[in-house]
Design a protein that fits this description.
This protein is α/β, with parallel strands linked by helices. Helix content is 37%, strand content 25%. It has a domain of 125 residues: Rossmann fold (3-Layer(aba) Sandwich). α3 packs across α4. The mean pLDDT is 92. Bound molecules: adenosine-5'-triphosphate and magnesium ion. Adenosine-5'-triphosphate binds next to β2 and α1.
Length: 243
């Protein structure tokens, strides 16, 4: 099947900083693609460019065959979680989702479906987001991304703050989403986390793609992924690095 997210020669510069350097990769439907890289590697920048929150310096990203801005009703087709801590602290979880559903034109009943899907209890849904633990915020953020029944999920560090139960839950949720034909791109700076949740890995270091394949392929080619990850994404010397 044709890829649902296609990043082609994407470059993003912030002044002197080359945050994303000629990045190309694809995320196919029916799988969970882990976008793995250390802090500052360019994961969030790539995702922000993909959904046009920030303009690319050059290159292009298409989602479902079109640029994000050209998609009809993009927020309903592409579920996005870019910063789980950005939710309004004074609103309750239910209010956040209800407003989201209204914005999308999703039926009100979707709010309860989503609360159940992400495992927030009615009592938790009534509490203000400011009182939520990080894990609860991630659940709410994923719920928000799922509101419009999207075909594609773009999640920046969704497992950040989740305990092992939460990671297990997320793996099941995203696996189910992908098995139903959905496309998931999720970022993480932790190899272990990506190996638990994703079936494909796109590895980025200092703005460049340094490995790309299914987890099984990468293990077959490289053996110990931890060593490969550390080696290929080392941040000490930009020069002398061969991609
Ligand atoms: N708005 C901005 N202005 C200037 N530089 C930025 C901006 N956003 C990101 N950068 C720089 O771009 C590079 C990539 O940052 P980015 O946030 O994409 O990394 P990341 O892989 O998401 O890291 P982390 O794991 O810490 O979230 C870093 O050097 C960062 O300092
Ligand atoms: Mg980031």
């Amino acid at each position: 099947m044709s890829p649902m997210i296609t990043v082609t020669n994407l470059t993003k510069r912030y002044g002197d900083v080359l945050a994303v350097d000629n990045v190309s990769f694809q995320a196919p439907p029916g799988s969970v693609t882990g976008f793995l890289g250390p802090n500052g590697a360019g994961k969030s920048t790539t995702m922000r460019c993909a959904v046009e929150l920030t303009p690319a310096t050059s290159g292009e990203v298409t989602i479902l065959g079109q640029r994000y801005r050209d998609l009809p009703n993009p927020a309903a087709r592409v579920g996005i979680l870019l910063d789980a801590s950005a939710q309004h602290a004074g609103r309750t979880g239910r209010e956040v989702l209800t407003l989201g559903a209204m914005t999308l034109g999703a039926p009100k009943a979707r709010v309860d479906e989503v609360l159940q899907l992400v495992g927030l209890t009615p009592k938790e849904a009534k509490a203000r987001v400011g009182t939520y633990s990080l894990g609860m915020r991630q659940r709410l953020g994923i719920g928000h991304a799922l509101l419009g029944n999207p075909e594609v999920l773009i999640l920046d560090e969704p497992a950040n703050g989740l305990d092992p139960h939460g990671i297990h839950w997320m793996r099941g949720l995203l696996r189910g989403f992908a098995d139903a034909g959905g496309t998931v791109l999720l970022s993480s700076h932790l190899l272990h986390e990506v190996q638990l949740i994703a079936d494909r890995i796109v590895m980025i270091g200092r703005g460049r793609i340094v490995a790309d394949g299914t987890v099984d392929e990468l293990i077959a080619d490289h053996g110990n992924l931890e060593d490969m990850f550390l080696e290929r994404t080392a941040t000490t010397s930009r020069e002398g690095f061969a991609a």
